[in-house]
Specification:
This protein has 11 helices and 25 strands. It is α+β, with helices and mostly antiparallel strands.
């Protein structure tokens, strides 16, 4: 079920039409929201046809929300800015016979969970500065602590050329933040006894049985190989220690291993056809492992990978806006990727098959679109050790594996400098902070996190019981350091350090 988009607002009996949808609520066919705001009765209405239903909220304070109004008694352009606007109560309704088990997060004032509002406002100010400086076109960011949403901002534009304001439910290419969703599906099937972590991959994908290893891992000569001495296991795939490489590696590019025009089966065959970069379990090499795991999900579950995710992960978590491609109304909220070019941001298409077209390759490693709030729901489930709003998706024992380094000792450390030197990798597909001193931005030991190559990032911090999710669309992903500065500013806003 997609989130309806509010396009009309009634204030004290006057009907306004919105130039762009700005508030997004989950509902069924027709809904109504009522609340008291600065002495005005505000009613937001969305409607299709048929059955009607009602959702009521009480409103207190939250972040700035802008309504762009196109018509009001002959006036063509009126903007109403509503500040400090908070949802304190939420009813979710389902459009199908199955109940939606996940609900939107509860909200709270930052101070109630030990965070300073002024510090979060400074985070907004700094993000806006990155937009004004041309580092990024727009951004959506959220912060939660103790299971409560304390910050949620959408700033800038999703499309500079069309002048489209960044909506709160903007779709982003999350690239490598897809991996953790795929790994969660794998862990669900582990809970069901479908496999063991030390099972050889060739048990399920026999094309990997006789795969050889490059003599020189820097070579692209597929004839210069040696016999593999160890089995590639499921654990190796989850921890990037299988010997497979990156989709952008010279070996894979020259041998056409990965292309969004090919099918998942074809990619698996391609990955098995070329040699491994190293012996399984002997080294960490970040690569296309999660895409291979997507095929294993199909084998273990008997379902297409995307259908499995939708039924067993996205729908139970209420992740209505996480998908592999966007068409129709969804495509209208897909943010444009920008690249700095000659001193300004210019549209840049990373893929030969864009994300508003159905690809042949359903790619668990880098192939998904999502929103900040969808990913926040997922992250809260992970922080809760496998449960959200009374719905358990993973056993607590299995969810705990998401927080434990699983890289073999001989493959540690997983890098030679920067945060790689102080990190591990878990069976949940997460980077694990093991030594915060190696990071150039503040993190707690035991935090699990990762990011995407088009400007997205998340942190799940069990020590501070805190989640941050931030998404923009810029390539390269640095964007003037907007993600690092956001992390620093949010960290500085914590008044109750745990």
């Amino acid at each position: 079920m997609r989130l309806p988009r509010v396009r009309e607002i009634s204030v004290n009996g006057f009907l306004f039409k919105l130039a762009a949808p700005v508030i997004f609520l989950r509902g069924q066919l027709q809904g109504q929201l009522q609340g008291q705001l600065r002495g005005l009765v505000v009613v937001l209405v969305w409607q299709k046809s048929g059955i009607g239903c009602q959702v009521q909220f009480s409103m207190t304070q939250f972040s700035t929300t802008r309504f762009f109004i196109t018509t009001f008694q002959g006036l063509n352009s009126i903007m109403v800015s509503i500040r400090k606007f908070l949802f304190t109560s939420l009813l979710l309704l389902s459009a199908s016979s199955q109940s939606v088990l996940a609900q939107q997060m509860n909200t709270a004032s930052p101070e109630s969970v030990g965070v300073a509002s002024a510090g979060l406002q400074e985070a907004t100010t700094r993000l806006q500065r990155h937009i004004d400086n041309g580092d990024i076109a727009g951004v959506v960011a959220a912060v939660a602590r103790d299971g409560k949403l304390i910050y949620f901002e959408a700033l800038g534009q999703m499309d500079l050329e069309q002048g489209k304001v960044m909506p709160e439910d903007a779709l982003f290419r999350i690239y490598s933040m897809s991996r953790q969703l795929t790994s969660a599906a794998v862990l669900q099937l582990y809970d069901q006894g479908k496999f063991q972590f030390d099972d050889p991959v060739s048990k399920y994908l026999p094309q990997f049985a006789d795969q050889r290893v490059l003599i020189d891992s820097n070579s692209t000569d597929v004839m210069q190989t040696k016999t593999r001495t160890a089995d590639m296991t499921i654990a190796h795939l989850l921890t990037h220690t299988s010997g497979l490489g990156s989709r952008s590696s010279r070996l894979y590019v020259e041998n056409n291993v990965r292309d969004r025009n090919i099918t998942l089966d074809e990619l698996v065959d391609n990955a098995a056809r070329v040699p491994l970069f190293h012996e399984p379990g002997s080294a960490f090499l970040y690569g296309l492992h999660a895409t291979i795991l997507g095929k294993l999900v199909e084998i273990w579950s008997g379902q297409p990978f995307d259908e499995y995710l939708k039924q067993h992960l996205f729908e139970p978590l209420g992740m209505d806006s996480t998908m592999f491609w966007a068409t129709g109304a969804d495509a209208e909220r897909l943010a444009v990727v920008y690249r700095p070019t000659n001193g300004k941001l210019a549209p840049y298409e990373i893929e030969t098959v864009p994300f508003n077209v159905q690809p042949n390759l359903i790619e668990g490693g880098v192939g998904m679109l999502s929103t900040v709030m969808d990913y926040m729901q997922f992250a809260q489930m992970v922080l809760n050790k496998g449960e959200l709003n009374g719905t358990r998706l993973l056993s607590e024992a299995t969810a705990t594996l998401m927080y434990e380094n699983a890289v073999p000792a001989q493959a540690m450390p997983i890098g030679t400098d920067g945060y790689w030197l102080g990190s591990g990798w878990t069976l949940g597909g997460f980077n694990l902070v093991m030594d915060p001193s190696t990071y150039d931005f503040p993190v707690s030991q035991g935090t699990i996190w990762w990011d995407g190559s088009a400007g997205t990032r998340f942190f799940i911090d069990p020590e501070q019981n805190m989640i941050t999710v931030i998404m923009a669309q810029v390539s390269p992903s640095n964007g003037g350091g907007f993600r690092e500065e956001f992390t620093e500013t949010v960290d500085a806003a914590i008044t109750d350090r745990r």
